[in-house]
Amino acid sequence: MPVTPAPTNDPLWSQGWYHFAARHASPNFGSRPPQAHIDLIVLHSISLPPGQYGGPEVPQFFNNQLDWQAHPYFRQIKDLQVSAHFFIRRHGELWQLVSCNDRAWHAGCSSYRGRSNCNDDSIGIELEGMEGAQFEDAQYESLHALCAALMQHYPIHHLAGHEHIAPVRKADPGAGFDWVRLQKNLGLEARYLPLGLGAKHHAKER
How deeply is 9 buried, as exposed, middle or buried, from its count of CB atoms within 10 A (0-12, 13-18, 19+)? Predict the structure, then answer.
């Protein structure tokens, strides 16, 4: 099923670029398959070096400009070329690196809601943070506003973490991320939550 055409007169968007995000375009992207149905938001967490916040390293990494000699950890990711559509810093600043109409390289080998290759039909959002650790109120505020705008513009029906679409490889954003907070602020039914988590939350509400 092809993606539902987005409104051309939406003042929040221009060719997949969100007007309230600072643009830091990454070269790491490609075209989506012709029949891609953009119905999934995938949340990630990242910090470079791990546990350090506020520096230029994450954007540099997404733009293939990271100084690989600046920290021992960087040698582990030297050959990677990755990106996400959005990056939310600890104080809530929102950056966009790839147009949502294009395919960012954030999911890797993945599978969710009966489909593989989640990069094809998902929008990736990176939160500055460590997997398993908590996130800042300002990040949740930016994330809620962004997700609401995405859900108005694209046929989003699923939200998941990297840990849910690639559970053998990834564990982010992890236990420190509050899915119920996201659900309540967006006014979503439990079925929008990650598979399994939505069912558990629905059972608690009975």
Answer: exposed
**Coil, helix or strand for 5?**
coil
8 burial class (0-12, 13-18, 19+ CB within 10 angstroms)?
Answer: exposed
Neighbours of 39 (CB within 10 A): 18
Strand partners, 123: 41
For the question of residue 126 being annotated catalytic, the response is yes
CB 13 within 8 A of CB 6: yes
Judge whether residue 79 has pLDDT over 60. yes
C-alpha–C-alpha distance, residues 37 and 154, integer Å? 9
Any idea which residue has 């830091």 for tokens?
24
Average of per-residue pLDDT across 108-135: 96
Q: Model-level pTM?
A: 0.91
pLDDT of amino acid 203: 37
pLDDT given for residue 1 in this prediction: 37
Whole-number Å distance between alpha carbons of 114 and 16: 26
CB–CB of 107/166 below 8 Å?
yes
Sheet containing strand 158-161, edge to edge, reads 22-23, 94-96, 86-88, 122-128, 40-46, 158-161
Out of 126, 128, 131, 163, pick the active-site residue: 126
CA 146 to centroid of chain Cα atoms: 10
